[in-house]
Amino acid sequence: MLEESPAAGAATQAAVAATAPATRPAPVAAALPAPRAAATELPAAQHLDQAAHALLSRAAMGLSPISLTLAWADWALHLAASPGRLATLAQEAARGAAAALPAQPGTPARPESDDRFRDPAWAQWPYAVFKDQYKAACAWWEQAVQVDGVSRHHAQLVSFFTRQALDALSPSNFAATNPLVAQAARETGGQNFVKGLQLLAQDLAQQATKGDAADAAAALQPLPFAVGRDVAVTPGKVVYRNHLIELIRYEPTTATVHPEPVLIVPSCIMKYYILDLSPGNSMVRYLVGQGHTVYIISWRNPEAADRDLGLRDYLHSGVMDAMAAVGRTSGATKLHAAGYCLGGTFLSIVAAALAGAKARGDAQPHRRHTDTATDLPELASVTLLTTLTDFTEPGELGVFIDDDQLRTLREEMARTGYLSGKQMSGSFQLMGSRDLIWSRNLRRYALGQDDKPMDLMSWNADATRLPERMHSEYLQSLYLNNALATGRYRVGDAAVALSDLHMPLFVVGTARDHVAPWKSVYKIHLLTDTDTTFVLASGGHNAGIVSEPGRPRRGYQIAERRRGQAYATPEDYVNSAPAREGSWWEAWSAWLAERSGERVAAQAIPAEQAIEDAPGRYVHVRHAD
Description:
alpha/beta, two-stranded antiparallel ribbon, 17 strands, about 625 residues, eleven-stranded mixed beta sheet, Rossmann fold
């Protein structure tokens, strides 16, 4: 990975200063955090409180111990006051224990839905007993955490951390209770344990040398898949840059192209090249190969000095300025826009704000708030990939969001000026602990299998920060207040209503998404009345999107709801939507082509538009935290 030298960093700042808008845009969100006093002006008592909160937060893995304690107290007190529920749970425990007894010879094996226990070896004694007793305990605890009277958020916290504890105690995690480890020991003559001990000693040695300096050095080690060499290698040029984004345009590879460009808005929580990984699984390369002129936003990885960048900056200097630049550099009056995760939320806000302004006859919002006077191209369609627009059920990410958790986050960000990539990756790792922690530890230390380099895992280690103000506004306005879905989010002086969207929508949810549960993504049907094609893809938040043609064991369901058609519940959708094998990329490319004009001759990127070669400068900026 290339690192910026001090001289290069100074050049970056000079380039940014030359392209940054002269004036700041007007606020967009209704519920902004109160102005933060300078640290030197805080009273000593507040300093003491913040120091104590920071210590408690670190002890609780970055979470608020107060929120956790209140949740468990709420559950325990309501359970203690429910003797009938306690009696029912006692009966369930007895039933579960009986069900976990060894089956009689000749009894047909029950179908196994848990990936951890699908190997036939788990059906053999005594491993079948370990598995069945564990699954009975999991089923009992799943019932036990459901107690009437416990607040919804507290119930979610208790359920989440109970599941984390149960995942840690799974018999699949321990060498003595996992038949695959015994099998590996027989096949290798015990060499799996020797290799596992070597890997454990290696990891412990690295852990023992950790300190701030060592952590920083380790975090900035070259990535296994280098940006611009192994990943993010689709040929293109940076054609626009401001203080927040670089806009990359990709060279055509077909003789003709569709006249409407495709602008991709990735999440600022991640480096953009998740959509341009290795050539074989690059969404960008695939779209270019299908005759689309593709642009993508590369967000700048913020510094502490960027603490006051807010949502308005990401909407105006991010999405709107990118749309304007696409129009200027392509000459197109219409474009297709696609947003991924938080980038999709940004895109939906901008699309609704522009549609509302057009319906009211107002000037386009960007004309008042950005560094360009160019009219924005019309949105021919909008694609939303694993995107929340209604935040009432945000999935497991909601575990980390309540008033006290936000206070803890604000206090930490007030000290640093940003939410670190390490904090975000820790939250995502906790949500996926079954695969990212326990299964990995088993493979590494018991089976003696070292980690195989993967482009997606290398990308996952290339963490980004979020500015203090933007992150606070995002959580407060969207997660806590659900302002977008309820029409209370404002761009400038106008409320944003997703019901103003009338262009065709292509919406993708993924079946195993912990960040944006597909049923929450599906709620876009309740907020809009326009032609909407919904895809439910196999996989999770990342792997379900990076799902190139030819990848085995991939499939999806797809169905269209026409404007004015009656609403179908998520359950109705699953029962009726046709299932297809393969990659949903193919269906999406065909959908875009159907909503595009006649193909025209492809043109190379004009030399005068090129600022530098893709992948640009911003994607190379890495921070130790």
